[in-house]
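Risk register update: the risk of archive-format incompatibility is retired. Evidence:
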Amino acid sequence: MTGALQDRVVIVTGATKGIGRATAVRLAGEGARVVATGRDLAGGAETLDLLRRAGGEGAFLPHDIRSEADWARVMAEADRLGGLYGLVNNAGAFFVKPLVETTDDEFDDIAAINVEGTFLGVRAAFQAIARAGRPGAVVNVSSLMGQVGFPGAVAYCGTKGAITGFTKTAALEGAAMSPKVRVNSLHPGVIWTPMITGQFGDSQELSDAFAADTPLKMIGLPEYMADAILYLLSDDASYVTGAELTVDGGRGAD
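Archived output:
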């Protein structure tokens, strides 16, 4: 797939680590001009260095996805680089806590990031792609837990499920636009990133346990998600919109 996104401008949120960083680097290697965003300035600088080493070009911008003003700045950078083609709504929040112990503030906070942040991004992307005057593509990173339940994660499952439903409606509206915008959701399973290790610990024993509990007997890596996102953004997926692409080693089928 060498050069699959040559000279196309793609925004990747939450690009300072994990899936976002792996995606930014992968897309840069395919010729994309990547606008990597996030709140960790040091992590963002590291990502920018990695994507340039991959042969790509782009920029890093500090970005709170809950802020409409921040989204306007990010879209202006995409305009400057040649006009937006794609958006990867990857930034998100995660915590594990039983429903009866989850506070109003905790639920509101995760909803503001996972749901409202996605909404603001897609709305801004639709407008920017229209300005560019060329078809585009959006990938909203949901989760396997946006398709199935998980005890103790009602806030996360609820907000990721909202992204799943939101994506389908956005896909219908994007298909009716001129130029058209394809919108799909990605559903990772257990992926070995700081989001997981920050909640459950970072040990080989835990990694092995997750792998053993996965039908393919493998731990999920951010690079696997980057490959799937590349596919959804590329012309190979030109007839794919409103789809849920689950990349989970078979966990959801078990």
